[in-house]
TrEMBL record:
Gene3D superfamilies assigned to the protein according to its UniProt record, in alphabetical order: 3.30.420.40, Winged helix-like DNA-binding domain superfamily/Winged helix DNA-binding domain
PANTHER family: GLUCOKINASE (PTHR18964:SF173), ROK (REPRESSOR, ORF, KINASE) FAMILY (PTHR18964)
InterPro entries: ATPase_NBD, ROK, Tscrpt_reg_IclR_N, WH-like_DNA-bd_sf, WH_DNA-bd_sf
Domain HTH iclR-type residues, every copy: 16-60
A Pfam family it matches: ROK
Family statement drawn from the similarity comment of this UniProt entry: Belongs to the ROK (NagC/XylR) family.
Protein name per Swiss-Prot or TrEMBL: ROK family protein
Length: 388
C-alpha cells in the first residue's frame, strides 16, 4: 500500500478528472466522500480538490450534514458561465454542441458538411458554428474552456494528427490540434469518432461496465473499446479500428479503399450497401435511402443488410472471444436496421465461446444523436482537470 492509499479501500479513482466526475454525477458531495470512493488519503484528496477549485472546476457551497464530527464542506461543479465546445464530424453531417462542466449538453444541432472540401474549409466552418452556438446559448459572460473534436478516420491521439483516413481526400497527415491552436487559445482534444461514441455511451449509460465494445456503423464502420473502465486506444490510437479486418466469407471479395480486398468496410458499411444497390440499378444516393428501402421491405436491400450483419458479427466474434467484453453495443444509422442487428447477434452466439456470451449484453446505443459530443465533452473535461 502506498502513502496515498487509505487502508482497506480499493483504489478506483486516482486523478483530478475522476474526482471531478464523481462530484458531477452526484456520487460524491464532499472531500470525505471522495476519499471513501477513491481510496486516497484525506490529505491527497484535499490537495487535488484545492487544485480543482483553483482552476474553477469545483466550488464549495456550504456545509453538509454531520456524521458525528465537523460538518463537511459541500462541493459542486459550477455549470454557470463555463462552456465546452464539441464537434462530432461525420462523412456527410456534423453534430456540434456546447456542454457545461458536468458534461451535460446545453445545446446541440446538426449541419451538412462535405469532407471532400478539405480539412481547413470544413474545420474552419465548424469552429465558427461552435463559437456562434456558444454565444447564443450561454450569454455574453460565458467562458470557453476547451473544444473536443471527433474525426471519422484514424487519429493519432497524442498528436491530433489524422493518419490515412478512408474517403477523406486531402485529410491525411493533417494536424487538427495545430489548426485550432492558431484560431483559439483554449485546449483542443481530437480523437476518432468511434472512440468519442464509446466514451459518451460508457460514461452516461454504462459506467458500471469495466469492459465493453461500442461499434459505430454508418457510412463507415469503426469501434471504441472500454477496458478496465477506461477508453483503450492502444499504442498509436488505432485500437478498435475493425474497418480493415478481412471478412473471409465475402464472395466475391470487393476491393477496399485501403487497397486490400474483403475488408469489413468494403463489405458491410453504409457506403458499401449504397454501392451494391446502385450496381443492382436501384436509385439510392445515401445511407438514408438504403434504410428507407429496408423499411419498405425491398428484398435486395434487406438481403444485403442481413449479409452485412453477418459480416460484422464474424469480425466481432473474434473480438468477443479475445477480449471477453461485458457488452457489445452498436450505434450509427445502421443500428436501426433490425435485419442487420438480428444477423449480427446470431453470428455472435454461433461463433463465440459459451462462457464469452453467457452474460454478454448485445444492444443498440441508447444515448441518442448527441453521444459523440457527450464523449467529446468528457475528453475536454479530462484535459482541463488533468492538463498535460
Amino acid at each position: 500500500m502506498t502513502d496515498d492509499e487509505a487502508p482497506g479501500v480499493a483504489v478506483q479513482g486516482t486523478n483530478a478528472g475522476e474526482m471531478l466526475r464523481l462530484v458531477a454525477t452526484g456520487a460524491a458531495a464532499s472531500r470525505a466522500d471522495l476519499a471513501r470512493l477513491s481510496g486516497l488519503s484525506p490529505s491527497t484528496v484535499s490537495q487535488r480538490v484545492e487544485t480543482l477549485i483553483g482552476r474553477g472546476l469545483l466550488r464549495e457551497v456550504g456545509a453538509g450534514k454531520s456524521r458525528g464530527g465537523r460538518r463537511p464542506r459541500q462541493l459542486e461543479v459550477p455549470v454557470d458561465g463555463v462552456v465546452i465546445g464539441a464537434v462530432d464530424l461525420g462523412a456527410h453531417h456534423a453534430r456540434i454542441g456546447t456542454l457545461d462542466l458536468a458534461g451535460r449538453v446545453v445545446e446541440s444541432r446538426s449541419l451538412e458538411v462535405r469532407v471532400e472540401d478539405g480539412p481547413e474549409s470544413v474545420l474552419g466552418t465548424l469552429l465558427t458554428e461552435v463559437t456562434e452556438l456558444m454565444r447564443g446559448a450561454s450569454g455574453p459572460g460565458a467562458v470557453l474552456r476547451g473544444i473536443g473534436v471527433g474525426i471519422p478516420g484514424p487519429v493519432q491521439h497524442s498528436t491530433g494528427r489524422i493518419v490515412s483516413p478512408s474517403r477523406m481526400p486531402g485529410w491525411n497527415g493533417f494536424d487538427v490540434v495545430s489548426f485550432f491552436a492558431g484560431r483559439t487559445d483554449v485546449p483542443v482534444v481530437v480523437d476518432n469518432d468511434a472512440n468519442l461514441m464509446a466514451l459518451g455511451e460508457h460514461r452516461w449509460k454504462h459506467p458500471e461496465l469495466d469492459h465493453a465494445v461500442y461499434v459505430k456503423a454508418g457510412t463507415g464502420i469503426g469501434a471504441g473499446v472500454i477496458s478496465a473502465g477506461r477508453l483503450h486506444r492502444g499504442g498509436q490510437g488505432s485500437a478498435g479500428d475493425i474497418s480493415h479486418c478481412q471478412v473471409f466469407t465475402a464472395d466475391p471479395a470487393p476491393l477496399c479503399s485501403c487497397g486490400n480486398t474483403g475488408c469489413l468496410e468494403a463489405v458491410a458499411s453504409g457506403a458499401a450497401l449504397v454501392s451494391a444497390l446502385r450496381e443492382r440499378g436501384l436509385p439510392v444516393q445515401s445511407l438514408p435511402d438504403v434504410m428507407r428501402l429496408i423499411d419498405d421491405g425491398d428484398r435486395h436491400a434487406t438481403a444485403l443488410a442481413r449479409n452485412a450483419g453477418r459480416s460484422i458479427g464474424e469480425i466481432l466474434a473474434v473480438v468477443v472471444n479475445f477480449f471477453n467484453p461485458q457488452a457489445v453495443a452498436i450505434g450509427g444509422l445502421l443500428a436501426d436496421c433490425e435485419p442487420l442487428l438480428a444477423s449480427m447477434r446470431s453470428v455472435l452466439y454461433e461463433r463465440c465461446l459459451p462462457l464469452a456470451t453467457q452474460t454478454l449484453l448485445i444492444e443498440r446505443l441508447s444515448t441518442g444523436a448527441d453521444v459523440g459530443i457527450l464523449g467529446a465533452g468528457q475528453l475536454v473535461i479530462d484535459r482541463v482537470a488533468d492538463p498535460l
